[in-house]
Task: structure prediction
Amino acid sequence: MNKEKLVYGGAVIVGVSLIAALLVALVLFSIGASPLATYKTILTGPLSDVFGVTEVLVRSVPLLLVGLGIAISFRSGILNIGAEGQIQMGVLASTAVALALPGLPRGILLPLVLLAGALGGALWGGIAGWLRARLQVNEILSTVMLNYIAAQVHTFLLRGPMLDPNELETGSGTPQSMRLPETAFLDQIVPGTRLHTGLILALVAAVLVYVLLWKTTLGYRMRAAGAGAKAARYAGIPVEKYLVVAMLLAGGFAGLAGAVEVTGVHHRAIEGISSGYGFAGIVVALFGMLHPGGIVPSAIFFGILLIGADMTQRSAGVPANMVLVLQGVIILSIVSAQSFLRNPYAQERLFRWLSGFRPKKGAQP
Amino acid sequence: MTAMLEPISELKLEGITKRFPGVLACDGISLQVRQGEVLALVGENGAGKTTLMNIIMGLYRPDSGTISVNGEPVHFRTPRDAYARGIGMVHQHFMLVPNMTVAENLALGLKQLHHFMWLDIKGAAQKIRDVSERYELPVNPDAYIWQLSVGEQQRVELVKTLCLGARLLILDEPTSALTPQETDDLIERLQRMASELAIIFISHKLNEVKALSDRVSILRHGAVVFHGQTANHEPSELAALMTGHDVTLPRNEGGGPPGEPLLSVKNLRVRGDRGNLALDGLDLELRAGEILGVAGVSGNGQREFADALAGLRPVESGEILLEGRNLANRSPRAIIDAGMGYVPEDRQTEGIVPSFSVKDNLILKDFASRQFSWLSFLRRKEIDRNAEQLKERFDIRCPSTHTATGALSGGNIQKVILAREIARGPKALVAVYPTRGIDMGAQEFIHSQLLDRRREGVGIVLISEELEEVMNLSDRIAVIYKGRILKILPAVEATRERLGILMAGLADPDPPAASVHPSAGAAHE
Amino acid sequence: MNPEVMIYNVLSLAVPFSVAILLAALGENFNQRAGVFNLGCDGIMCMGAFVGFMLPYSLKAGPLAPYGNLLGVMGALAAGALLGLLFALVTVTFRASQGIAGIGLQMLGWGLSGTLFRHFVGGVTGVEGILAMPIPYLSRIPFLGGVLFNHTPLAYVAFLLVPASWFLLYKTPWGLKVRAVGTHPRAADTMGISVDRTRYQALMLGGAMAGLAGAYLSLCQARMFSDDLVAGRGFIAVALVYFGRWSPLGILGGALLFSIAQSFQLSMQVWGIKFPYEFAVMLPYVLVIVVLALARKARQLGPTELGKPYNREMRF
Result:
């Protein structure tokens, strides 16, 4: 990416953030919270101590992985809204493998568990890709539906076949799986915190996605299919095939995020494990301009927001759903700003409108 | 209603200027036209004709300048304002909603039929009957637009515009989709209507301008460069004024040895988007070192033929043999690898990926080749080198090869496509409307490139609706009608009239053999 | 059990189930006919449900209490129209990508309704809601009376809106404009129809109807509000528009089909047929995917400019 594009993109993102912050301030104001105090808590609260910073990073890991997958799919012209369901499938697949093969040595089990998670997510994403490629089913609708279906599958398995037998005995009935064998745990990076080596995995993934999209023929094919499906088809690129590939990859990254949550944080499958990462990942990807170089800081930023929102819920009584509002407003602002500013006519009109203020100061001929 | 009946005695434009981002589309244009007069507005593609007319219609707001009707300045904000003063336009691309009836299309613009919660569709139908009778333009108000032929749609547009009260008609390239005979018919009608109306006739076909108009104004790069009486000037003179310099498009001078048979299409049957048989037994043979022109009214299967050749449309039956290998129903990739080059119809969406850089578009078909990739990693240096080289050789004018291709002009985009296709060294090349909507300079370049390839032994199928282009470049001309090749004739025997009659689906009036066809006589001369 | 009773049970449950998705889908049909694909329908339904619930809830003790439900319905319509307006600003004026913007609107509506609910109400609380209003005489017809004529007023409104929206689309000037701007906006523009204004109107009407659909859920069906009350019905409504091939009658058929599937699933549990609950719940969502896969040919019949922003000054 060249420098001007970067500066321009950065300026758009900053502008969008300000607009979004302003709009959300209205909502905060209406529920009687002080916007400034809330924003201060959200943005500085999580960073006030080392533990807070590590918690932010713990949240950033799944956001980053999901965001990378979504960037791949969006770049390939398929709008994956189904990361939420793909995460859950990753959680189930990785947990199942870890619990089924507890005897394997760590060097084999851990990669196998992560791979299983990625495959679970890829399968779930691939369904939507296949439906779009073969049957022209709108992928937004199908992935949304697959989210609801995955949620039910997840609940069904955690309450039934995969339920921890201890829960039945003690009778508390919390729908969760058995604890994973410790050979399937990711290491901690900072002892005493939850920060785990998934962070390194995610950062490596970011580099790989960059190389994939811009340095390889596969990435070229996928981007061509996304940016100009017709021309790609005329050039002999089987566009439909790469829609499926893109969804497999996108789902794979989301599934990997699920597996990392299981092996790094919770060490078992629990309900609500994806906690909205699938949707937040869309915002992370858009906010990072669908480029790994932007998605890394964007994931950290949204990690801060998520932790910060929890804090304001406790300290200022602002419901944590507020994050959803913020995400929605950011999406609307980003897509508006991007398409509005990309349009040369609008740019020119904006420029003319701005310069229209000058001659009115008495310079009329 | 009352304002509509007032005749347009004069429409006057003064100093109209309109700027688009990066383009000065109209640069201080002044014009006038009176009742009973036909003004021809002539200029190359991109000279600003259509923009100017859209300004008159109130679709665009001019940056400066004034428009006045009967001496009174007007400011149109929407086409409805223009119609209210009796000005109406028939756009080059028909402005008809395909899944609505003729009457509904008219009712869209007739405010007086819009009652609260009720649409007077019968009133619209009646109005259409009245006008179509008065001007002898038969139109069925209850027909759906998608059921009508191009010529019928043209008539609907005329009737619609007249129903809306137009006394000044603006016709933007009205003949571009018509056969020569339909064109002659339209011009005759317009001549009859001209006495009651004022007409602005936009065209770049100078013989039509000569036949119809009283006065002519020539636009170049957004400015008027010439005003004059049509009768006093020869078409060649106007052509030179239009392009600004003497352009002589290169011609196929014939010669060269007749090559081996290269591509043969046998009994090809292909379905169109609606499931109809768009190609119904098409036969064709192309030799190496030959340009075979395919002429026809658009919608007779050209699109489907091109798609089938590129592997983008399933072939129901028949064969496409390139050097004896059947390519029917092979993948686009396999067809490309077999040595087929392709310049698609819609360059913006089919020829290039607009947001990709020029250098990336130049490898759109070859990115995976050994030259540009290594173990499926792209070889950026080689891609850059290739781009610089082709930019030079094909005179692609772009700020740098990193520029997004979609930002280039039509002519330069077409050069990018041509560069990519030719650099691959194809055996056969299919070019669909290769010069549509691009300026003469680029046109000249593209024509000479095609002729050069011919000399090198490439076989070229040229699908075009510009008869002149087909006649200039081809060795033989195949006329396509309703999905079949009606006739193939050597270019030297082709005349505009003869092709026109064939394009209309009539039997050849002038067969090379001595037999006599009495039936087609009526349509001829 | 008597099969007739079983059918009666399924059908009499299905009709009220169909109301919310029917209302939302009829509204979405106006959006799509005008060329705008509004995936934020679900979020608008959330806000409609919240506002519909909130007004009668907060007016419960005051002098306006008797009008609480009416004000709730009107508030839901207004909230829906307002969100439709916001979506129009984003997709029509700013010409943003409609698919992604729709997801943004969905998050906004969903999050905002949840935030406001938690702040102003807190936990699960019921409201009296709107009660069923059997139609005199007709409701006493055996079998049919109970299935068709024993519902809340909003349900009757929804079914009357089927012919009404057909009439609006095909017999009125406004409908003509809507169909034109969704299929060939430039043609409409050259006839003096404002494409942007028509799309704004369609989006506001569609939004208001989605808001009404939400209010139906909170006031008539659940008589309470919660975060997951809407549960993706907005997305199902969008799918129904495809399934119904942009015709009000087709949409009605689709809505009934879905509701019958849903009420059948509930009835099975009542009848004690052993079937994992979760699989029954996912049934309608699976059905949507199947239906979308089957309806793929429909696209040619629909508004051909669906999803594409219109820009007058973009030249060919």
Observations:
- The interface with chain A takes residues 20-22, 310, 312, 331-333, 335-337, 342, 344, 346, 349-356, 360, 364-365, 367-368, 373, 376-378, 402 of chain B (CB under 8 Å).
